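Model: You mentioned two targets. I'll fold them one after the other.
Researcher: Yes, keep them separate.
Model: Target one:
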Amino acid sequence: MPSRESSQFVPDFLIAGATRCGTTSLHEALAAHSGVCVPRKKEVKYFYDDAQYKRGGAYYATHFSHREEGQICGEVCPLYFEKGFVLTQDGPSSWVPEDDCAARIYRDYPDVSLLFSLRDPIQRAHSIFWKNKWQGRETADDFAQAVDEELSGKRKPEETPFCFVWRNRYHIHLERWLELFPKEQLHVLLFEEWVKNPQIAVDAFQSVMDLSADPQWGTHCFVKSNEGRKLSHPALGSISAVGDKIPLVRSLTRRFLTQPGYPPIDPHVYARLQEEFREDVIFLETFLGRGIDVWLKGV
């Protein structure tokens, strides 16, 4: 089993979540800072992918081989946020250490600074659904159907990754990280706040990462990327399904067969999800020590 002793390399920070919360923009902004080394490709997935993790810390260090003297280093991989939690059929929830990103990170690098960018859970669930839809991974006709299938028990988190309510149970996922790491080691950014005002992200990075001075770096480095898209026509679904297996087709589908934006959320679905996620918002408000006025505002 890999351990911290397997390599002299120790990351200074990890942005470990969550998907569809602006992590591509955060990665690109950090890559633009002269005092930061991040992998050349976002989402190494070392702690997520079993085959990579078994190769050990020395292998992980190769992703930072371009590190220059004096640079701090770290990785952005939103897939780490939820990976590892398993629901049992008849008993309480349990964690599987062999498949638990949080546990792997704690075991190897217990002192690493952890950052999470989190988004209004309803908007994030909606975004994840439509991303999976245009990529050919989603079978439901629309978001309302997917939500109904999950809340009625037809979709179960222990059987499929396409449970969009479950993936936004922030109180469950963050509680897992808090079981392992002290609260002061976990830092949460709210997607809606830092996107509107990138200085929030700049201040957080400087505080958490102890960034060196770089006069060429600042709020202008936080550029919107990886915007939400939908298929231009439902009939293109068969093509997008091929793209799920062939990256080139997926890239061409995104470029030529999709358009920006998503269909609106049905007001009845929104109201239903407001109640579903209320506990998660209250938990995060307690964690942050303040209210989150930008979430669950209605349609």
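Model: Target two:
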Amino acid sequence: MSDVIDIATLRRAYPVSDTMSHDTVYEAIEAAKSRKYFSSSSSTKTHDPEWSGSDSWDDMVDTVKRGWVEGRSSVASGLKHIFTSGSARVATGASVDYDVAGAYPDVPMALAGEMEHMINLGDDVGTKPIVRLLVSLGATASVSSKAIMNRGAAVCALVDEIESAGNSCEIHAVWTNTCGVAKSVYAVGVKRAGEVLPIDEIAFCLGHTSMLRRVFFSMMERHKFAKDHGYDGGYGRSVELEDYEWPSDCIYLAGINSSPTPYKTPEGAMTEVRKLYEAQAKAKQLEVDV
């Protein structure tokens, strides 16, 4: 699942490039125990927890293991603003039934504590398209944790709209950096199509600052390619993937590298995320109505 970036394609435009990937956030955390090549480690620093999203690496790991309860509440709050404002809607259809068990969760209902929040699609499940989302977590150092969380809530809302309509999402998180002529891409699988994933896990992978500034940073710190090409001097420059660098059947949601302004509010974040999604869905002729 995590090999969503084809290194051969990447190297056609950037001969000096490399990738690192993991199938899940748990694999990424476990791999962080291996050798680090950087002389210092931003992923484990304890200063400025507001910026890094957690007090320490161990605190972040504990959050992942026990579930990001605070994030569930924060994302739920963001979703409430998004849906109340009309920036998004929960898609419905006759083929969708709710129960305590099913194919996948309805995100807002689950966050609200509704027991019957699982969606059953019955015989229609095989007839609906799979939407592959490639979500960039790129954010410059000046981007606040609040903006990152607003963006995460917006992506969760988008996923809910797509899946509530009876479709299924496959989600990958990516972070892309350059340093001089070198380019590196880091990827972590978030959700397989049809997979029932805990809400806390989705919220952490898409909206917790530590996913970028601890988990992805730790991947770079043990990437010999990054060390050999000078990334340890400042962790490179966060950029976006070019349109030819991701699979043609993916929808790529750009990160917050260029301007954080749209992400200052939940509603603004939802508007921006929908704009990114709809432009590509239309161009790719995806039969998914959100």
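Researcher: Noted. Anything on target two?
Model: DSSP finds eleven helices and nine strands in the chain.
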